[in-house]
Specification:
heterodimer, A: 166 residues, eight-stranded mixed sheet, 6 helices, 29% helix, globular, B: mainly alpha
Amino acid sequence: MVEYNTLVPSRIVGTRVKHPSPCLLEGAMNCEPDIEVATATEFLLRNKKKDQNFIYGELISGGQLSFVFENLPKDGTGCRGRWLFDEMMRHFGSSVVAIQGNWTYGDNLAMVNRLTSLGAMSIEDAAKRGPTGKYAASWGFAQVQVLSQTSGTPGNYVCVYVLFKK
Amino acid sequence: MKASRPAIVRHLRNMARRGHAPSQMLRELIDRSGPEPPHKLTLIKYMREAFCLSLQEASPIGGWASDGSGELDDSQLDGFIEPEIVEHRAQWGSLDESLDRQGCREPEGLSQN
């Protein structure tokens, strides 16, 4: 895997042949991606036009990918989650063995609670239906393992910790 | 004048020793940062460095906002972060005394806090 030890100028992102600007690809508004950190174990991509729009990922022991993503406010603008996730996955490549889902707030947790309420669906299946579950599955990480730190009851989970595996 | 990064980290640890909650520490960070509020990733970075937290452990900070507009309120945030700070006490508790500038290390290499 290529390792970048220095900051990658933002213009490089826009000139990649395989990964053109998300603005051109998907019609995303207000998205000017800037890769600020890209090493063997870290990746940070921030939107220069929207402060609270970024993805930061770390590759930790055993090849687990831990990451945080944000696109606020939810106004339909900014670099899209799918595109940011794909950029991160392309960066880490085959080094990723499993993808963490650490949900203490946000869309994934809301989805799990909505789908598991009244026993409608298992937590495993619900986890696959959220944004991260879908993104992970598109990279072949379709198996879900619910971790013991998960707390709450179906429909009322306070936090959900999962691992997506191949 | 803005405090240096090691000074801020030491201050956060001292706040924890005095029993301050994570939400109080984060407000302190924000108050000390000057007119431009720090990015969420910066808050996460300082808390990780001060208390040897993994990204997973520190990630609830992303759902909190000092003005109460986040999904997590103060007590929810504290409920997630405080146990982790206590859990890692043996790691960060003596770092200032030993003048270990490396602290619990930046997230580099294949290591997990």
